[in-house]
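FIELD: query
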Amino acid sequence: MFLVMNNTEPNSGQKEALHKLLLEFGFEETEAKIYASLLKPDVETTLDIARDSDLNRTTVYRKIDEMIKRGIVTEVSDMHGTHLAVVPPASLGKLLVEEEAEIESRRELLPELAKISDVLKHDADFDVRTFSGESGVRQMLWNELSADTEICFYGHLLLQNVVGQPFAEKWRNEVIQRKIMVREIQFGEEGQATDFTELEQFHELFEERELLDTDIVLRHQISIYNNVVAIYNWKSDHFTGVEIHSSDYANFQRSIFADYWEKAKPVTYSHQAKE
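FIELD: result
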């Protein structure tokens, strides 16, 4: 079963070819060096291996133990004592059989792992992230562009009044490119002016309604998308923001938005024909 080499030593070309094949077969660099060394007729001990391969003796001892456990190397006893030998290359196929069995075992575990992952994901479905400053509001706005289909807003300020017209138009252009619907409700204020954007295509995706006859006073902006509720707050020109990542909370806020949306009046811009 096991091979003790006592033939002539391979030449440099054979050594290089063997080393390359062992690496491609799945051997580690150290394992390939040890295996190649043990194929030589005068290499039988860990000391021989260390001298032949230029590996540290401690490394050789540790790796030899691993290779013995894997069945790549064995200890052979005869009238001359005990020495090391390697499994002939043709017999390494059993390693493939063992690896295939291990892979199949792992494959059978995938459904259970998926179930556990879903449970953990559900349990961890609540995360709060905070932002501050102009860079913070820009990041929050850019995060909104990950919306699958729609962003729902409770509006407070024109976007360009917060982040500047260039960034606001860049955000709106991304909305157009990603085909995200945008719905906005304004409380107690007149709708946005018709010239708030030069991107006419944005109006095809944007719809605004207003609740003028209401006691609700909104001093911050709220957006709802995917499983996120984002709250934008300005005080004395200082911005702080919060993203609440929770499917349950986002769905709850989305249902409230839907109720207000039904009660709100569509905003008619000057370029739109009135009924």
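FIELD: remark
The first strand starts at residue 73 and ends at 78.
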